[in-house]
Amino acid sequence: MNKKTVRDIDVKGKRVIVRCDFNVPQDKEGNITDDRRIQGALPTIQYLIDNGAKVILMSHLGRPKEGYDEKYSLKPVADRLSQLLGREVKLAEDKEVVGENAINLTSEMKEGEIVLLENVRFIKTETKNDLEFAKKLASLADIFVNDAFGTAHRAHSSTAGIAEYLPAVAGFLIEKEISIMGKALNNPERPFVAILGGAKVSDKIGVINNLLDKVDGLIIGGGMAYTFMKAQGLEIGKSLLEEDKIDYAKEMLKKADEKGIKIYLPIDHVVAAEFKGDAESKVVEGNIPEDFMGLDIGPKSISLFSNALKDAKTIIWNGPMGVFEMPKFAVGTKSIAEALSKVEGTTIIGGGDSAAAVEQLGYADKMTHISTGGGASLEFLEGLELPGIAALNDK
Ligand SMILES: Nc1ncnc2c1ncn2[C@@H]1O[C@H](COP(=O)(O)OP(=O)(O)O)[C@@H](O)[C@H]1O
Ligand SMILES: O=C(OP(=O)(O)O)[C@H](O)COP(=O)(O)O
């Protein structure tokens, strides 16, 4: 990476604002169910503390739509960070993020102290890369460190805009992610297969165009599959659909066909009438009946996908194959994780939920790399420049 890192600057006595990706999965009560992303930020935070910096942390959590919403508060993250670091992490409880509390707490900091700002997405213009908000964030600090690999594909006020106002360097997590994935994928061993799933369909479907120039095979499952099934003229009932991406999906099927790249789609589905963990479910092949939704891939799809993975030498996986949070619909994701664990090659898992699934299922140590970024790792692997990294100072 040709960008400066925290090692290249003197942080002693300085107020250092660090963008982290603390967008962690939580259960209904708000308990953090996977703290991989928090753990991933610790080396940079610890380095800054050890070198006498005053550390101001910031992150988003989820996608709050209407400004402040307690449900999206970073309070649980502050508590987990305190536990993991063994020192107090004060949360600046301002609904407007850079408010009285943030200003007071950060102006009184001593070396080695840590303050966490509230969810930057409580400010609606954050995701528009609003420079006014970026300037406010910058006004709290002397140096900006970006260590939010999972959000590096977003050009937002806290990931990109802020770099216009402060010296801007990368943290260790970004450095590590780029180094590992760069090495594995510079010249990937083939066959190279990508697996896409999950629910952020409109976000991630766009990567397929570029991926088709890189991979030898593409497996599409999870919520991503139904838009493609629809494009093939199949019925998908009440399953997740991106209506305005059907034409794009058709184009992608055509492109893959022309290039001789196989796209694997599920041939059977575990369906239910309701999006509920205890909903009655059944397996159907081909079309999904009108009143049902696909919540997992079926047994024949599992075999099809597992076979396609058997001889692959490089695999990237992003997005679960079903609603794995509900045990009834976790079999597809679990089986694909198992298939990957047996592959003799490079396996890279990306995405908060995919990583959590692999971790929960006990396959984490069987994978080459579990990235803290889903969309970010996909865009990086496609060869795109990530705005949160592009904004940092060159070496
Ligand atoms: N068939 C499906 N219908 C609805 N949601 C699904 C389906 N398959 C997977 N999901 C959901 O996708 C979510 C993860 O999607 P996404 O955020 O894109 O993945 P990641 O975080 O791994 O990048 C999970 O919460 C899972 O329940
Ligand atoms: O969870 C994230 O992305 P991912 O689901 O692609 O891994 C990041 O925190 C980015 O969040 P966003 O997709 O709401 O910008």
TrEMBL record:
Gene Ontology biological process terms in this record: gluconeogenesis; glycolytic process
Positions binding substrate in this chain are 21-23, 37, 60-63, 121, 154
Instruction: Name the residues that bind (2R)-3-phosphoglycerate.
Output: 37, 121, 154
Instruction: Give UniProt keywords alphabetically.
Output: ATP-binding, Cytoplasm, Glycolysis, Kinase, Nucleotide-binding, Transferase
Q: In which pathway does it act?
A: Carbohydrate degradation; glycolysis; pyruvate from D-glyceraldehyde 3-phosphate: step 2/5
UniProt-annotated location(s): Cytoplasm
Q: Which GO terms describe its molecular function?
A: ADP binding; ATP binding; phosphoglycerate kinase activity
Per the record, what are the reactions this protein catalyses?
A: (2R)-3-phosphoglycerate + ATP = (2R)-3-phospho-glyceroyl phosphate + ADP
Gene3D superfamilies the UniProt entry points to: Phosphoglycerate kinase, N-terminal domain (3.40.50.1260)
Q: Which Pfam families match?
A: PGK (PF00162)
PROSITE patterns cross-referenced by the UniProt entry:
PGLYCERATE_KINASE
HAMAP family linked to this entry: Phosphoglyc_kinase
Q: How the protein assembles, per its UniProt entry? A: Monomer.
- What name appears for this protein in its UniProt entry? Phosphoglycerate kinase
- Source organism per entry reads Fervidicella metallireducens AeB
- Taxonomic path: Bacteria, Bacillati, Bacillota, Clostridia, Eubacteriales
